[in-house]
Amino acid sequence: xxxxxxxxxxxxxxxxxxxxxxxxxxxxxxxxxxxxxxxxxxxxxxxxxxxxxxxxxxxxxxxxxxxxxxxxxxxxxxxxxxxxxxxxxxxxxxxxxxxxxxxxxxxxxxxxxxxxxxxxxxxxxxxxxxxxxxxxxxxxxxxxxxxxxxxxxxxxxxxxxxxxxxxxxxxxxxxxxxxxxxxxxxxxxxxxxxxxxxxxxxxxxxxxxxxxxxxxxxxxxxxxxxxxxxxxxxxxxxxxxxxxxxxxxxxxxxxxxxxxxxxxxxxxxxxxxxxxxxxxxxxxxxxxxxxxxxxxxxxxxxxxxxxxxxxxxxxxxxxxxxxxxxxxxxxxxxxxxxxxxxxxxxxxxxxxxxxxxxxxxxxxxxxxxxxxxxxxxxxxxxxxxxxxxxxxxxxxxxxxxxxxxxxxxxxxxxxxxxxxxxxxxxxxxxxxxxxxxxxxxxxxxxxxxxxxxxxxxxxxxxxxxxxxxxxxxxxxxxxxxxxxxxxxxxxxxxxxxxxxxxxxxxxxxxxxxxxxxxxxxxxxxxxxxxxxxxxxxxxxxxxxxxxxxxxxxxxxxxxxxxxxxxxxxxxxxxxxxxxxxxxxxxxxxxxxxxxxxxxxxxxxxxxxxxxxxxxxxxxxxxxxxxxxxxxxxxxxxxxxxxxxxxxxxxxxxxxxxxxxxxxxxxxxxxxxxxxxxxxxxxxxxxxxxxxxxxxxxxxxxxxxxxxxxxxxxxxxxxxxxxxxxxxxxxxxxxxxxxxxxxxxxxxxxxxxxxxxxxxxxxxxxxxxxxxxxxxxxxxxxxxxxxxxxxxxxxxxxxxxxxxxxxxxxxxxxxxxxxxxxxxxxxxxxxxxxxxxxxxxxxxxxxxxxxxxxxxxxxxxxxxxxxxxxxxxxxxxxxxxxxxxxxxxx
Length: 889
Prior knowledge:
Helix content is 66%, strand content 5%. The chain is mostly helical. Among the domains are: 2-133 and 163-209, no CATH class; 657-828, no CATH class. Strands 3-2-1-9-8-7-6-5-4 form a nine-stranded parallel β-sheet. Helix 5 (86-121) runs antiparallel to helix 38. The longest helix has 41 residues, at 28-68. It is globular and about 85 Å long. Residues 2-17, 19-24 and 590-594 have low confidence and may be disordered.
């Protein structure tokens, strides 16, 4: 920060670059941005706390760099940190945290810049929709491609899982800085550039002075409104652009002048306001309010676009005569709403297309305002009107107007309807069991059971208001048998004629539940309500697979293989029973919860399980990382589309099938040994209390990053701990254990000779599942710091556990490098490697500050006043480490 902090590609870049990455220089534009933002922050620190504050930040920065280079011991860094007052330590932690927010912004900005430059060069980018279309057309032919596009579906489901550690105020402040950086990047004149730099300094100063963590608890509707920002600012606008990209890839010459060949294939879902599993704050009233908030946002968006197109569509009747259908529709509107149509016609004489679209915009507004005389009864009615306008324009020869902006609006209505995202309900199977027993007894219902029944009433109300598609999926977490699904259907049926239409979806989360999934589905086929839904939907069924709890129970390697086996078994079950099965992947944002690059994950699924469609949860920080900016959102959806299309081809599936058959015995040996190692660790007597002592597990709840409690029950065991705080706490300790632990033991079980290592390398090169497993572990290992991790683990007073964890780390790192053939971690991923390597020293600084606070708190020798300051330092450092590693839970 300041002059020295901003003096290199990253602060003190030469010192932090290892010999292995010395050649990996930063792009000039990214170097410039990081230097400028760091210097502005440094100047702000001097203005706020004097030169002494910046000097303290610099001393810590130099110390952690020297420790990384082996020039000093970590204890000397700890001595420096311990010498500060808690107030000073807090300011230094804030400085590094704000710096990480600025570096993250600069890197994100550079990603957008790179994507923009590719667009300008009109490249066919690997992983794009155009690349997938070209490859499939060449290999499978146009008929197969057309069929695949017709069935294509991407169904991201936003959840309120608390993995976004930043306050909304911080996020919006960063967005303002990003906007200014973008304008500065556009080569303005000297005077404008000076003003933009002045405003950047102002915004950075504002960010520095803003509280970086929440001091009030979020409620579920806060979470709904936060997610709406991604819709308002990005998703609504990006979706038609993505469809246009696909349409252009299918027919580059004709797009925009003919009926589209691409259909609306993105279907947005949401658990925010609907997921009540273990969250007492999500009530039936919250669910109703959540849908109304969503409807408000989408109806306002549709109204604005429809009105804008209407105002711009100034084609005259003499040049573009309306179709008979449009003339009749305008006449009917004049009869029903003479004053409104008269006013519109006065402003738009002899412009019938414009008149009708302005009338449609007024009807959308009336729908939002619940004016029954003018409102649309359904999105289908609006869609019919827009199609009529489009066809009228096309019939009059105005094909560019018909298939341009009007078509984009049609796609938006088809995608979002009047409800924006289908709200899904989730509740624990035990809750339904208790509620059903009370309903059957026909007595007074407990508060919890009454809430279950009231939720079903609200689902029925939502369906009457917005249509069945707005809310029909009901997910049963911890499904153990078909009885858990039948219970929800029976509870719904108890409402008689007011019962909602439901697709009850079993969620299999534990290792045991995943194994018995096919037998549970056999039982579901015997349920009359399920049989009726299969008949109504063309034998469509959905099953959800939980990644988080299976990984927490089995470890990453064994859970990956168990999930793969379950996908294979369910795909075979669906074929035997003539069921069109959708697998819903409950993947978290972190690697320990099923996270990682979406495209690679899709290609690693079991053959046949990606049937031209992919449904997945998008959680917390991932929502804004993937959908926070239009270009990045577009790139993400294109990558998913590319992977779904390719994963559905026979060639890709056959290669995966052959590799799985060849290497599965090897994988089984790895999985069993990995599971045994993981279970041996977490089943060690006293492990749960040791974990709570060596990590900020219990303090994380004070970050108030979500409305949901960290545990399902009041019990303190690992089994009731949610997967998010489990992963988040390990991330903070720099151990990252959920992303790799056990894999080393698994690999060691088969890597007894050079021949065995060679076979493992063949598996890595040939089998996407195995490659994904090792690549994800490699990423987690790269974010692990052994020396600092050892300092955290020492807080537990169990040296044998520390030795066990570190020995498994050494084993895993050595064998992952041996199998991948890499000399260092992430050797083949230049951008990610650079980001991790250059961040690590500055994350070290925050870790040392956190260790000071954690060690003092664990000592039990602090008074209440000192405890409050230590808590503040700890939580501020937690926020900073999350920003530095770009990962929470």
